[in-house]
Amino acid sequence: KGLALAPDDAGLLRLKSRVTEQIEKEKARRADEALTEAKRRLDQKELDASLAAIERGLALVPDHPGLVGLRERVDRERANRLAAQVSSLLQDAESAFERGDLVESLRLCNEGLALAPEDGRLNRLRSRIEGRLSSEKASAQILKQASGLVGQGRLPAALRMLESALASDPRNAELQRLREGVKQRIELQEAEKAAAEALGRARELLARGDLPGSLQTLEDALALYPKDQGLRDLLGEVKQKQRQQDDQKVQDLAKRASELLSAGDLDAASELLREALALRPQDPELLRLRDQIASRQSLAERIDRRLQDCSAALAPVGDTPA
User: Fold this and answer.
1) Taking a C-beta distance cutoff of 8 angstroms, is the pair 199, 222 a contact?
2) DSSP annotation of 134
3) CA atoms within 13 A on the CB side of 283
4) For the whole model, what pTM was predicted?
5) Angle formed at CA 230 by CA 226 and CA 231, multiple of 5 degrees
6) Most confident of 144-158, 182-196, 240-254
7) DSSP secondary structure of 59-85
8) Rounded distance, CA 149 to CA 155, Å?
9) Suppose 214 and one of 26, 55, 184, 205 were both cysteines; which one would form an S-S bond, judging by CB atoms 3.0 to 4.6 Å apart?
10) With bands split at pLDDT 50, 70 and 90, how would you rate the model's confidence at 322?
11) pLDDT at 4 over 70
12) Phi, psi (rounded to 5 degrees) for 131
C-alpha cells in the first residue's frame, strides 16, 4: 500500500527487498526440509510418501535442483516397482494357468491389468484364460473344484468361483444349480448365526432381569427365523417367568388394595386394583375385591348424600330466633 502511494520511496523499496529476500529464504529452507524428508522416505522405500514431500517442496521452489533430480529418481523407482509387481502377477497368473486353476489365474491377471491396462502379455493371457473358461472341460473342472470347496465348508470361496465361471459360461445349468445351492446354504448359515446372536442377547437380558427386553428380542428374531428351536424354547421360558412375575405383582397389588380397603382409603385401593386387573382381567379374586370396593364406594356415596340431606333439613331450624 505504501509503494502504491509512493512508488519511488527508497526506504519502502529497501524494506520490500528485505521482506522478499526473507520470504525466499524461508521457502528455500522449507524446500530443503522437504528434500531431507523425501530422501529419508526414499531410503525407507516409502515411494509415495517421498513423492508427496518432493511435490510439497517444489510447490515452494519449482526449480530446486535437488528436488527435481530426486523426483526423477523416485519416478524411476516407482516405475521399476510397478514393473516388478506386474511381472510377479504375470508369473503367478501363468503358473495358475498351467496347473489348471483358471479362476485364480484370471484373478491375478485382472489384478495386474488394473496396474498396467495396456500390458500386452497380461492381455494375451487373459484372452487365453477366457477361451479356456468358455469350454465345457473348464466348466466341469470348475464345477469339481467348487464342489470340493463346498465339501470343505468354504462356501464364500465356492460362490466366488462359480460366479466367475458363470460370467464366461452363463448357460451352464450345472454351475447354475450348484451356485443356487451354495447361496441357499450361505443364507441358512447367516440366518443361524443371526438367530444365535439374538438368542445370546435375549439370554443376557434375561440374566439381568429385563424380561420385557428379552421377550421383545425373541419375538423380533422369531419373526425373521420362525423355525429356530432355540429361540422358541427360550421364548417359552421367558413367557413362563413373565407369568410368574405378573402373578407375584398381582398378589402384591391385591394384598395392598385389601389393606387400603380395610383402612378406608377406597380411591387408592381402586387405583391399585385397576393396575392388577390390567394384568389379570379375569382373575376371580380381583373381581371379588373390585365388587367389594365398588360396594363400599356406593355405600360411602349414599352416606354422603344422607348427611347432605340432613344438613339441608336442619339448616332452617338452626336459623330460627330463640
Assistant:
1) no
2) T
3) 19
4) 0.33
5) 50
6) 144-158
7) HH-TT-HHHHHHHHHHHHHHHHHHHHH
8) 7
9) 205
10) very low
11) no
12) -65, -40
